[in-house]
Amino acid sequence: MTEMPAARKPLSAAQRERRIRLGVRAAQAALLGAFLLAWELGSCRFLDPFYFSSPGKVLAVLGGELMARGFWNDVRVTCTELMLGFLGGAAAGVLTGLVLGRWQLLCAVLEPFFVAVNSIPRIALAPLLVIWFGIDLMSKIVLAASLVYFITFFNTLAGVRSVDAGLLSVARIQGASERQLFLKVVVPSASSWIFTGLKLSLPFALIGVIVGEFLAASAGLGYRLNMYSTSYNTTGTMAMLAVMMAFMLALNGLMAWAENRLMAWRPRSVFGADRNVL
Predict the structure, then answer these.
(1) Whose CA is closest to 244, among 101, 12, 82?
(2) Which residue, 188, 193, 181, is CA-closest to 157?
(3) N or C: where does the chain have the smaller number of CB atoms within 10 Å of the terminal CB?
């Protein structure tokens, strides 16, 4: 008499998440590899290398850049401008959003002015910022901060306004003061909106820095990108774009890690959603 095969032990939640995460990473690597392979083959047969270059040539330029001392100085300059602009704009935006979210009357008075100022394209203001603050770091920091500020401000304000009225009522019934309501109900409830604003504004901070360096700078990745693009060096331009994309991916990973650490209380899945969704 043959024995029945033993029932397979069900996977735990952590094992399922690990397997899904590995599958996602494998799919991403396969998609990237397919794109690079198609690009390489296309550049040899269908695409003009002058306009599109090729992954092999871009990699060769990247290798030369990584060995150059001037490249790392440009990376340092851009990182300094990006971090100062992002941190300054994010801190001001979150603080303003929390303050105006708490004092509704003040918010009603000032909100039209914020909307009006936000409608001004900051990229168009970049030449004025260069005139006001010079071609050094400050003009790029201010431009990046101005892009970050309004994204974080409006997201924070929306988060404060979206707080469940039932939670506030329960806290008031239990005797919570207005200060406790704000710190223990409003801010935690709005934290998801705040982190969304921070993640959305991070690429705009890099855009502001690169545009500022593109217009007037003597160092930075934007300066190097401008140097390659104005000399019609497609390979060098592609290499700088690849550096910026890798840089932003690393920053997004750091932001996701910070969000996971600071919001460990929130039910999460491998995709950051509620576990019951999967």
Answers:
(1) 82
(2) 193
(3) N
Q: Name the one residue in this structure whose structure tokens are 């550049």.
A: 43
Structural domain of residue 217, as residue ranges? 54-264
Flag whether 271 is in a domain. no
* Residue 189 lies inside a defined structural domain of this protein: yes
Contact indicator for 199, 255 with CB cutoff of 8 Å: yes
Assess contact for 238 and 53: CB atoms under 8 A: yes
Contact (CB, 8 A) for 61 and 235: yes
- The residues near 273 (Cβ < 8 Å, ≥ 6 apart) are none
Return the amino acid letter for 65.
Answer: E
Inter-helix orientation angle 104-118/69-102, to 10°: 140
The answer to whether the beta carbons of residues 132 and 192 sit under 8 Å apart is no
User: In 46-118, which residue ranges form alpha helices assigned H by DSSP?
Assistant: 49-52, 55-66, 69-102, 104-118
**57-73 pLDDT tens trace:** 889 988 888 888 888 99
Residue 21 lies in a domain: no
- Give me the half-sphere count of Cα atoms (radius 13 Å) on the Cβ side of residue 102: 14
* Domains: count for the chain: 1
Q: Evaluate if pTM is beyond 0.90.
A: no
121: domain CATH number?
1.10.3720.10
pLDDT tens, 93-150? Answer: 999 999 998 888 888 888 889 888 888 887 778 788 888 888 788 889 999 999 999 9
User: On the CB side of 248, how many CA atoms lie within 13 Å of its CA?
Assistant: 17
The full DSSP string for 135-198 is SSHHHHHHHHHHHHHHHHHHHHHHHHHTS-HHHHHHHHHTT--HHHHIIIIIHHHHHHHHHHHH
